[in-house]
Amino acid sequence: MRAHKTLWMLTAIGLSGAALAEGVDGAATAWMLVSTALVLLMTPALAFFYGGLVRSKNALNTMMMSFAALGFVGVGWALLGYSLAFGEGGPWLGGLGHALLKGVGLEAKGEIPHLLFMAFQGTFAIITAALLTGGMVERMRFPALLLFLTLWGVLVYAPLAHWVWGGGFLGALGALDFAGGTVVHINAGVAALVGALVLGARKDYGRQALLPHHVPFTLLGAALLWFGWFGFNGGSALASGELAALAFVNTMLAPAATLVAWALLDLLRTGKVTAVGLATAIVVGLVAITPAAGFVSPLSALVLGAVSAFPSYFFLLWRPKTKLDDSLDVFGAHGIAGITGALLTGLLAEKAWNGVADGLLFGNAAQLGVQALAVAAAVAYSALGTFFLLKLVGLFTPLRASPKEEGLGLDVTQHGEEAYVEGEGAVLVLSEASPPALKPVGGKA
């Protein structure tokens, strides 16, 4: 019996070794499996971050926007988006060679299975689409959102990913974007800004104080985002070596510096440090270090994190004084911080750490110009693509909820549910087609 058991174990070990395709590294694959799961976790984390910032009557709807991206953007990525981003093509767009996951199997893509590379990149598409919803919460109809997110992931996110990472023109020019400063954060921030402008302000904006209903949710979301971001940045090394370690450590240090700078700004301005402020600071620091994570030294990461607090902080103070209802300040936290991080990468990159390129402060002034070009390209394409898709979706289904639906809250009107039920009953919303209530037979009502 013992001999049979030993033979079975040896056979299993042999089969597991044979299962690794040529060129696939087991350690790199293990790290990328973990990183993919960490990045996927970031989307539910974002749901908590955003859900805590809105009014209670819209909490579920806001969280559902992120959860919807897991399915609708994820499926679109597998069927077509991945091929347009990473399939062989031209400088502007990938081809259809990997549509329906054709040719995406267990063969090596770098040091990991091609299928795993596709899944890891898919988690980036999902979180990017989820991020932009923060500019449209509390007023966008859910059916319209589902159609928009599906199209946006394929037609806006995928081409921009190709430009930078898939063999497109920005990558060929030498634009540095380690984990998504342009592809993810500038893209999402600009899209949220356009969405806010197209939809218009919430009906109560500027007339009522639209306060966060559950700040602990927002703190929980920020914590889970930071946790997942180690896979977001560290995993972008696509291996488990020195570069992953550098990105991992920089992902710890930069947001810490942003948090300190933000807290000091709050203390100097008001004498108080707010919980929402520190949660926002963490996200701003994470966004800013994302394009630079594998290109700068740890000391430069601290500098980058501290400096990135200032433009986002003062933009977030200014924005509520305008008519722009970017509800959850996606442009301020992601767009502005993404632009800051991308440009600072052009200043602080060190070939001694990354083996790729130096920035302006280390003798390569041209790198800052390339970074500025990449920023401009991302802003322009995201703005135009988002505007076009919103108008297109609006031809098929109304984008915005009615004033009555906004007043009741989108949880009930879009989902038939409530996040919080007080007493014995929930809000009952009858459709116009519902039959009239029956009158009691005999006696008075």
Strand/helix succession: HHHEEHHHHHHHHHHHHH
Query: Percent helix among the residues?
Result: 55-70%
**How many beta strands in the DSSP annotation?**
2
Radius of gyration, taken over Cα atoms and rounded to an integer in Å: 24 Å
- Alpha-carbon distance between the two ends: 80 Å
Give me the secondary-structure category.
Answer: mainly alpha
Please list the strands of the largest sheet in the order they lie side by side: 1-2
User: What portion of the residues fall into strands of 2 or more residues?
Assistant: under 5%
Q: Kindly report the average pLDDT value.
A: 92
Reported for the largest beta sheet, the result is: 2 strands, antiparallel
Low-confidence stretches: 1-18, 433-445
Number of distinct helices: 16
Name its key features.
about 450 residues, mainly alpha, two-stranded antiparallel ribbon, 16 helices, about 0% strand, disordered N terminus
Could you walk me through the main structural features you see in this protein, from its secondary elements to its overall organization?
- This protein is mostly helical and 445 residues long.
- The chain has helices at 2-18, 26-51, 59-86, 114-132, 142-165, 169-173, 181-199, 215-234, 242-270, 275-289, 298-318, 330-348, 351-354, 366-396, 403-408, 410-415, and strands spanning 108-109, 112-113.
- A two-stranded antiparallel ribbon has the order 1-2.
- Helix 2 packs antiparallel against helix 8, helix 8 (215-234) runs antiparallel to helix 9 (242-270) and helix 12 runs antiparallel to helix 14.
- Residues 1-18 and 433-445 have low confidence and may be disordered.
